[in-house]
Amino acid sequence: MLIGCPKEIKPQEFRVGMTPMAALEAIAHGHEVIIESGAGDGSGFDNAQYEAVGARIVDTAEDVFAQAEMIVKVKEPQAVERARLREGQILFTYLHLAPDPEQTKDLLASGATCIAYETVTDRSGGLPLLAPMSEVAGRLAPQVGAWTLQKANGGRGTLMGGVPGVGPADVVVIGGGVVGTHAARIAAGMGASVTVLDRSLPRLRYLDDAFGSVFKTRFASAGNTAELVMQADMVIGAVLIPGAAAPKLVKRADLAHMKPGAAIVDVAIDQGGCFETSRATTHQDPIYEVDGIMHYCVANMPGAVARTSTLALGNATLPFLLSLADKGWKKACADDVHLKNGLNAHAGMLTYAAVGEALGMESVDPDTLLA
Ligand SMILES: NC(=O)c1ccc[n+]([C@@H]2O[C@H](COP(=O)([O-])OP(=O)(O)OC[C@H]3O[C@@H](n4cnc5c(N)ncnc54)[C@H](O)[C@@H]3O)[C@@H](O)[C@H]2O)c1
Predict the structure, then answer these.
(1) Which domains does the chain have, with CATH numbers?
(2) Of these four, 13, 45, 147, 356, which has the most CB atoms within 10 Å of its CB?
(3) Is the pLDDT of residue 244 over 80?
């Protein structure tokens, strides 16, 4: 199969859909790979690294879209990219169609076979192509929170690990899923005193078994949450209710009871945030203050560490990419229910029921296409 990877054109996106390592493996499987010139620059992969593994560099995105049988990207295709897709072509990338009728309409009009990273599943019921970005955002949260706590940034001036004779920062993580677990581990590794709140008892049991005394766990009742938030130097928001906006667990009135200069890192901002005072910010201007509390609410945190994010995403997408290239989309989806769950559109038909429901559109059962 001829696999093509264009440069990402969404503002502030530095990741790339294929690393040179992914290109090397695809080529070893007998496929051809074309990369738009400069596509890997933002992640630290230059053209020469792709050429060294046997990929071909092409000058423009038009060349990639015109030639490739499968397009591998990171972000949802922008309007100009959607216009270049065609029937029979496979698109493998993040799509997030449910809130995006314009994109959905264009993808259906293109006739392309569109497989969305975010709906591919795994055996344990997880989302294996979303998890790497949650891992990145979780591990980044204490790092940016520590920076937010610095005096020059408006913070309280508390050092995460303290020093001999001076206690560490108190960090509270609300939500102990993928983001929360990674955030808690890193915060504890920086020497902070960390407590994770979650409403799921099985999850709290797992965390206790797996991490022992590295951090404490508490049930996320309203009372426990309010008490711990009041005592915290840093609060990391990491809750998720699948398919719903994040619940507002900390209200504006609660800020008055927090320590002045405390830091809020609302990782759940991409679902609206779990603090009433959260609003999405950018890497250019990441923090703002409300009632003396510093807020960091960047909606695409992994973009700050594009190289790590590209490598982590590439590790997760590679087996699916190879399967699609080796077998074609139909056999690959027929053989693997988890990849089939990624199928969102094919030949002008919507193939993902939840997207159809969200947009009030007809969808077809993908099994009818695979029969
Ligand atoms: N800002 C970013 O760049 C970025 C990057 C990656 C992920 N995220 C977001 O981070 C959030 C968390 O993602 P995740 O992968 O960790 O999800 P997850 O499903 O792994 O974990 C969510 C956890 O929240 C818990 N929870 C739900 N309601 C709760 C409540 N009321 N109180 C306490 N805990 C509650 C759940 O039990 C679960 O353990 C999501 O909104 C995700 O989209 C943001």
Answers:
(1) 2-111+305-369 (3.40.50.720), 130-299 (3.40.50.720)
(2) 45
(3) no
